[in-house]
Amino acid sequence: MIKWRLDQPKWVQIATELRARIVAGVYKRGNPLPSERQLVDEFGVARATVRKALAKLIEEGTIYTVFGIGNFVGPPPEDD
Fold first, then answer.
1. Is 4 left (phi over 0), alpha (psi -120 to 50) or beta?
2. Is the peptide bond before 9 cis (omega within 30 degrees of 0)?
3. 70 - beta bridge partners?
4. Is residue 72 a contact partner of residue 32, using CB atoms and an 8 Å limit?
5. The 3-state secondary structure of the chain, one letter per residue
6. Largest CA distance in the chain
7. Looking at residue 48, what is its pLDDT?
8. pLDDT at position 75, please?
9. What are the tens digits of pLDDT across the range 21-78?
């Protein structure tokens, strides 16, 4: 569980935590992240907060979305 800091928005702290887990190998390249619902339950925040954290990770290329399936550790595979 995250010990929330007051000097950063929660979505930033969640993105930082997920990024750290990826670097540590908890979530490996090509593997799915937990669902939004699981992350909401784990961090005890609103779904919008989790979505904003995930959007940041997508924007920076750390994860990618397969619509209808979920978010995966990136970068996305290249189309042939």
1. beta
2. no
3. 66
4. yes
5. CCCCCCCCCHHHHHHHHHHHHHHCCCCCCCCECCCHHHHHHHHCCCHHHHHHHHHHHHHCCCEEEECCCEEEECCCCCCC
6. 46
7. 98
8. 79
9. 999 999 999 999 999 999 999 999 999 999 999 999 999 999 999 999 999 999 777 7
